Amino acid sequence: MASIRDAPTDAAVQQRIIRHMNADHQNALSAFAQYYAKVSSSNATGAYMTNINLSSLTLSVPLLHQPDNPMDQKSTTKHEAQSVTIILDPPMKSYRDARERMASMAKEACAACGVSEYVINKYSAPRFINIVIGCAFLFGLFAFSSSEHFARGHWIRKYGLLNIAVFADFLKKYNKQVGLFVVSVHLTEVAIFWRTRIWKYHMKSGKARALWSVDCFLEGFGAFKRFDEMVVKAKNHK
């Protein structure tokens, strides 16, 4: 049996909590700064914990000041730090409550900031059906690139549209408008994907962002579904 002298001191427990939060929950600390301390999202990004006790926690928040003269090439952005204190109400009874309290605060703060407490920073390759859908979309873009593709005798009209005259004649006349509408819908899907998936789940990898964006543009719903499957796995892993 460990002796009382072997029990960690409050100072040791505090440092362990601080190291854990700074190493594994930086996104939660950013949400803490925004929601509880009313720090702007741009400054809250680099927030880190410097102290915690039973009644409060302290964050260091970088403050970015733009140069006095933006046109002066020698003038640079100034980096300073501000210390903000967040009151724990009610106070914790002991540091054994820290894990549950931090998790509860993170969930509340992330929800209020419109972001997730989970991090998705990987790409999931498309399945066969997704590839088929993407190829069909590319074929559609090619078809809409010229009104002649819908003219009588063209193979796209004959095999792609089964020689349905009313439909083919409509597309021949309005191919540009229909093509632009289809592209605008897919671009809108990419914008929604960025807001509700890439930004919300703190994706930092430029390669993963690019691959997801291309996939979403080509296949739409399939990209949303695969991303959401990764979110479910992240939640279950927790």
Features of the shown structure:
238 residues, Split barrel-like, 2 domains, 3-stranded antiparallel β-sheet, 11% strand, elongated
Overview of this protein structure:
With 238 residues, this protein is mostly helical. The protein folds into 2 domains: 4-113, PNP-oxidase-like (Split barrel-like), CATH 3.20.180; 128-237, no CATH class. Helix content is 56%, strand content 11%. The chain is built from 9 helices and 3 strands. A 3-stranded antiparallel β-sheet has the order 1-2-3. Strand 1 and strand 2 (56-65) form a beta hairpin. The radius of gyration is 26 Å and the shape is elongated. The two termini are 31 Å apart. The mean pLDDT is 89.
| Pattern of helices and strands | HHHEEEHHHHHH
> Would you state the CATH class of the largest domain?
Alpha Beta
* Count of distinct structural domains: 2
Trace the largest sheet across and list its strands. Answer: 1-2-3
Per CATH, the architecture of the largest domain is: Alpha-Beta Barrel
CATH fold topology of the largest domain: Split barrel-like
Mean pLDDT: 89
Strand content: 5-15%
Count, helices: 9
Q: What structural class do helix, strand and pairing data support?
A: mainly alpha
Please compute the radius of gyration using only Cα atoms: 26 Å
Kindly report the name of the CATH homologous superfamily of the largest domain.
PNP-oxidase-like
Total strand segments: 3
Give unreliable regions as ranges.
Answer: none
Biggest sheet statistics: 3 strands, antiparallel
Instruction: Report the span from N to C terminus.
Output: 31 Å
